[in-house]
Specification:
Elements: E1 2-11, E2 14-24, E3 29-33, H1 40-47, E4 53-59, E5 63-64, H2 70-75, E6 78-81, H3 93-99, H4 102-105, H5 114-123, H6 125-129, H7 140-153, E7 158-162, H8 170-187, E8 191-195, H9 198-204, E9 207-212, E10 215-221, H10 222-225, H11 229-236
Helix pairs in contact: 3-7, 5-7
This protein binds adenosine-5'-diphosphate (ADP) and magnesium ion.
Adenosine-5'-diphosphate is lined by residues 11, 14, 16, 34, 36-42.
Length: 243
Amino acid sequence: MLEIKNLHAYYGPIEALKGIDVSVANDSITCLIGSNGAGKTTLLKSISGMIHRTGSIELDGLGEITGKNSRQIARAGLIHVPEGRHVFPGLTVRDNLETGTINWHGFFGRQSYRDELEEVYALFPRLKERENQLGWSLSGGEQQMLAIGRALMARPKVLMLDEPSMGLAPLVIAELFEKIVEVNRTRHIPILLVEQNARLALDISDQAYIIDGGRVILEGKAADLKHDDRVVQAYLGKFAAGQ
Ligand SMILES: Nc1ncnc2c1ncn2[C@@H]1O[C@H](COP(=O)(O)OP(=O)(O)O)[C@@H](O)[C@H]1O
Ligand SMILES: [Mg+2]
């Protein structure tokens, strides 16, 4: 569905991505695991065209997208839920969701987005209950639901989620991750999931990549990596990063 080859990205003279190869299969959940500063966010921003990059990014049905800008990429259905959620604090929940339609609806579109809205409310009834509440007044978990809901309004062909569990309580995370799996299984949307919490990510993913220092240092089936000594030591053990 999404095929990334030899991706490089720079912040000034600093090479943040040093030739990354990642592929996301149809219908799968693929995770990128790595400690703070590994380059995970940079990779997602590179894919969605938010920063300059070189290499090759191919999206099913559209071909090479490396030459396209972030707007064209979003219009093609590659939708990015950013680290930190970026909910609009002064807009209501409903208006936040409406902003998600802009890639296919435009600013003054007249098409209805009621079906999309109903699907999001069915997935996250909490958002329906808080429909008229302003973004800032939501809890962290609700803001993450809103950020994912907004992405679903965009009719995604592929979803990229950057650290959805960040700063949330374990029970809230468990509920949220169930929803992420539901989106993948019932709507057949492939997901590229970035997480510092390796255990959580490996539990729900099919395929996994370990990123360190701007490179992929290990890849494989999530079920296998969970038992790989190197992964257990560095990312799953008692003293592992991000735990
Ligand atoms: N805007 C920026 N300017 C300069 N360096 C940056 C910027 N954003 C990230 N970096 C650097 O790039 C590297 C990768 O960062 P990032 O992709 O945010 O890592 P992760 O998401 O895995 O924690 C880090 O060394 C970080 O300090
Ligand atoms: Mg990050």
